[in-house]
UniProtKB/TrEMBL annotation, chains A, B:
Protein's name according to its UniProt entry: Ribosomal RNA small subunit methyltransferase E
Protein family: Belongs to the RNA methyltransferase RsmE family.
Protein's job: Specifically methylates the N3 position of the uracil ring of uridine 1498 (m3U1498) in 16S rRNA. Acts on the fully assembled 30S ribosomal subunit.
GO biological process, one term: rRNA base methylation
Organism: Oceanicola granulosus (strain ATCC BAA-861 / DSM 15982 / KCTC 12143 / HTCC2516)
A Gene Ontology cellular-component term: cytoplasm
Subcellular location, record wording: Cytoplasm
Length: 237, 237
């Protein structure tokens, strides 16, 4: 049985006392039935992973006592995932999978053919925390606010390459150019990009088109496939 | 708006009349509100993809008239996916994703640490049909009955290599040996393989271990990542 991992927004270090918020206390002591002395693993996105013991267990709070570092900080590569939100459950899956696969920042984008006009950023961020707790990550990617794709491209830092996944380009290669530095993956919406978007993306000097096979992939499948291609060719796999 | 694609278990060819079963008639005429003369795309796993027009539309049945072949038969490579069933929704996702990614056969396997002792094979097969309809495939992979991993290995054809995805081998490479011929991907259960299973798998002459990155992937994420690795190195991408 693997130990419980918890993300906390608190400094971690030898002898550090970590206070628990109500939801965490409920989870540890109410749901998981941990008692005083029980061991958990903590990470905060800055100090690596630490083992800690339950010092005080209460219904509405409690404290943990940090013991020793169990793993150093291991942030993912500087890779963003830009995706058009789809139906709720599948958007949740995209967030979960991007964390497992090792993206550093998740950017929901609104394209011309995106149905969803708003997202619950806080809900998606909570999903990212949960995925990081489960997959053994020591950081949690930030979920950005929904942004319009055209505006995002207006202010784009050209040193960040964009791996462009476009289902109309099935004849292309799955190989990426070996360009170091920051990258982003852009997954199109389920309705595809508009002609105007496609023309603009193709003309930008920092986009690199890749093909994701001969079949049409759903957005969440495409996200994992694209992240696999990037991680094995340029990332930390 | 893309056209409706329908899997039918009936020969397809120029001038061929295709009868619809009750569920298909309900979907086409009740849900999608197609009328006589409307065009759909058909595939049966043998004759490629054909356009067809609604000849008769009824509440409990109807017929389609095959017109012209729109795509040749394009079966996926001879790649099986062996996976331990997980929770219902995630098992459904594994089936859907394996079809999109291009697996030829889906084999649920029971390992020592697999919780699920039975599956609904017919339900999973229906999911595979639906995924094939949506992703543009011209074949539907067969979903096999649940089999015990040890018995499956007892009768294994050694000419079929097994790409072994084991989360305890994070230091390994993601590269596959360029061995042609039939392959299978084996995704471990969420609780991991037992020591006995791991020892046996490592000793078999047809297993090839690969690593899927430094983070722990859920079974459905691992399936897509492993299929991506295989398809880009040895498959049809």
């Amino acid at each position: 049985m693997s130990r419980i991992r918890l993300y906390v927004d608190h400094p971690l270090g030898a002898g550090q006392t970590v206070p628990l918020i109500r939801e965490q206390a409920h989870y540890l002591f109410g749901v998981m039935r941990l008692g005083e002395g029980a061991e958990v693993l903590l990470f905060n996105g800055r100090d690596g992973e630490w083992s800690a013991r339950v010092a005080e267990a209460g219904k509405r709070g409690g404290t943990l006592a940090c013991a020793a570092q169990t793993r150093p900080l291991a942030p993912p590569p500087d890779l963003w995932l830009l995706f058009a939100p789809v139906k709720k459950a599948r958007t949740d899956f995209i967030v979960e999978k991007a964390v497992e696969m090792g993206a550093a920042r998740l950017c929901p984008v609104q394209t011309e053919f995106t149905n969803s006009e708003r997202i619950r950023r806080d809900r998606l961020q909570a999903h990212a925390v949960e995925a990081a707790e489960q997959c053994g990550a020591t950081t949690v990617p930030e979920v950005a606010d929904l942004a319009r794709l055209d505006r995002l491209l207006d202010g784009w830092d050209p040193s960040r390459r964009i791996m462009l996944c476009d289902e109309t380009r099935a004849g292309d290669d799955a190989a990426l150019p070996a360009e170091p530095g920051p990258w982003a993956i852009l997954i199109g919406p389920e309705g595809g990009f508009s002609d105007a978007e496609r023309a603009r993306l193709a003309a930008l000097p920092f986009t690199r088109p890749v093909a994701l096979g001969p079949r049409i992939l759903r957005a969440d499948t495409a996200a994992v496939a694209a992240l696999t291609l990037w991680q094995t060719q340029l990332g930390d796999w």
